[in-house]
Every structure is written in C-alpha cells, then in structure tokens.
Amino acid sequence: MAAEIPTKEPLEIRSGDTVKWKKSIDDYRATDGWTLKYSLRGNSETIDITCSASDADHLVNESATTSASWAAGFYDAIGYVEKGSERFTVYEIGRAHV
Fold first, then answer.
1. Which residues are 52's β-sheet partners?
2. pLDDT tens profile 63-90
C-alpha cells in the first residue's frame, strides 16, 4: 500500500527527498481554473513551485532530483492562487527550512 499524501505544507524539506503534498482550498478549486503556486525566498535563492490539478485539489510533486538542487537554508514561504488576472495569498510562513 502506498503512503498517504500529506495535506499540509511541510515545515522542513530534506534535500534529495521527493516533495509531495495535496492542498484542498474550497474557494479556489483547481476544477474552477485556479492554480496554486508557492514561492520560497531565502537569502541566496528563490524556489518557485507550481501545483498541478488533482481533481479539485492542488498537488505539489517535486522530484528528489529537483529538491537536491535547492540551496540549504531558511526560507519565507507564501502560497497563492491565480486565475486570469486575479491573485490571492492563501498561505504564509516565515522561516521554513530546506
């Protein structure tokens, strides 16, 4: 049996691990055309993640190879949805660790 996909953003990401979680946002469903994105901003790097649709939910699925290329450190992270010219912040945390 496969491991269940987490439904919350991680507070820490280990370099070289697959990074995967699913986010359900009732007001901003993928089936309604919304795209969820995350931007992690650190001292030396910005990591941008675009989710794919998983039915009405949004799925983050970054490979181990991709996460291995991210610079270690602490990042401020925001999550936001976009649809056409609209954009709304739906998640924010300071100092997540990669």
1. 59
2. 999 999 999 899 999 999 999 999 999 9
Residues 15 and 98: beta-carbon distance below 8 Å: yes
Work out whether the CA dihedral 49, 53, 56, 59 comes out positive or negative: negative
Q: What does the alpha-carbon distance between residue 74 and residue 69 come to, in Å, rounded to a whole number?
A: 15
CA count, 13 A, side-chain hemisphere, 60: 24
The answer to whether 72 and 15 are in contact (CB under 8 A) is: yes
CA distance 30 to 28: 7
Phi, psi of 36, deg, nearest 5? -95, 130
Q: Does residue 22 surpass a pLDDT of 90?
A: yes
Name the nearest CA neighbour of 40 among 52, 32, 48: 48
pLDDT in tens, 44-68: 899 999 999 999 999 999 999 999 9
Torsion angle in degrees (nearest 10) through CA of 50, 54, 60, 63: -100
